[in-house]
Amino acid sequence: MTGKLFIVATPIGNLNDITYRAIETLKDVDMVLAEDTRHSKKLFTHFEILTPLKAFHEHNEREKTQSIISELNSGVSIALISDAGTPLISDPGYFIVSHAKKEGIEVVPIPGPSAIITALSASGLASNSFSFFGFLPSKQTARIKYLQNRADLNETIIFYESPKRILATLNDMLKVFGDERKVCLAKELTKSFETIRTDEIPSLIEYLTSDPAHQKGEFVILVSSTDKIDLVDAENQLAKILPILCAEMGASKASKLASKITGIDKKHCYNRAIEL
Fold this sequence. Notes:
The protein is elongated. The chain has helices at residues 20-28, 37-46, 61-73, 94-102, 115-123, 140-148, 166-177, 201-210, 231-248, 251-262, 266-275; strands at residues 5-8, 31-34, 53-55, 78-81, 107-110, 130-135, 156-161, 182-187, 195-200, 219-223. Helix 6 crosses helix 7. It is of the alpha/beta class. The longest helix is centred in the last third of the chain and has 18 residues, at 231-248. A five-stranded parallel sheet has the order 3-2-4-1-5. It has a five-stranded mixed sheet with strand order 6-7-10-8-9. Helices cover 44% and strands 17% of the residues.
């Protein structure tokens, strides 16, 4: 009889957030694949889970997958966990799950904590439509281009970011998104120093720079959707009114008024104004 592969969500901070079903599964399977066995041992010790742990991470996933598939085919039941949250979400697991599905092995999700959903639920931003894009590129040029390609999405967009790059990323977001869109910074979720702040980007930059401690922790960044305007019509309208406004007032005032009339980002209007 073929074994099953269980995808088990674990706490993102507060150990009490684990489900009874997750604990039961981790105790019942023959083996648990863990992103970092040293980290997972703390969880196992707390809940008295004695199941053997094996390291399974981004550096050995492809190498280990075939042997794990063989064990599953021989009847061994295996659980996959990440360091925190739901496996495969910006964590290893896609390669083995896709191979297990191809082999006809049953893959069983054991749902639970997810930093994305936790942050979104308390952000105050629209949750009816959203997209998650994982970690942003580490290099500034690539990061700005990546943000520009998603700037006009009419839905909440979500990223992960490290404490080393959080300030640089917000400064890049200010360049791309302007200073009026709402952004939520969420860190240390479910922990003692949980922080969830939703504000305009300049205020969040001020918050981060006011105390070095504010930049510590892994961040979830949520960006509000762009206003649902017809960009083609708005650009045509902008092309008509901006020269008239600039003739009557300076580029700064003209761009602010043009932004209010067309719904186009103020910075974009200003850049168009100074080109006239």
